[in-house]
Amino acid sequence: xxxxxxxxxxxxxxxxxxxxxxxxxxxxxxxxxxxxxxxxxxxxxxxxxxxxxxxxxxxxxxxxxxxxxxxxxxxxxxxxxxxxxxxxxxxxxxxxxxxxxxxxxxxxxxxxxxxxxxxxxxxxxxxxxxxxxxxxxxxxxxxxxxxxx
Length: 149
Known about the structure:
Mean pLDDT: 78
Order of helices and strands: HEEEEHEEE
Signal peptide: 1-17
Helix content: 10-25%
Number of strands: 7
Distance between the termini: 65 Å
CATH topology: Lipoxygenase-1
Protein name: PLAT domain-containing protein
Keywords: Signal
Strand order of the largest sheet: 1-4-3-6
Radius of gyration: 18 Å
Pfam families: PLAT
Domain PLAT: 39-149
């Protein structure tokens, strides 16, 4: 149990230290980091509709697979905000969508930790849910679409 706690603390310390980058490798293990073979992650965040449920803080997410490896996105909006210029993210009732590329995880994400930097005048936040999809790298399939004569 002590080893598990130590590993968990080490993981979060490493994740915090890498917050300068938009997306970072979390945990230890063989993540595919070849730029040509990166995966696409799409994150859907629904803010609750309660009064003062929105926030002006930066929101991040760490995704881990069953093998303990994963990715950390320090600031979703900066990394892959899809809602257009001038959109106010994480406001009451919003469904905000973020998408970008990152190192492929060897296992499907099965654990997520959503974090707030606590900054801004409205730092409290009610997150209704977070949904994540991950797709593998695009591959060239030669001859797949050829016609028979």
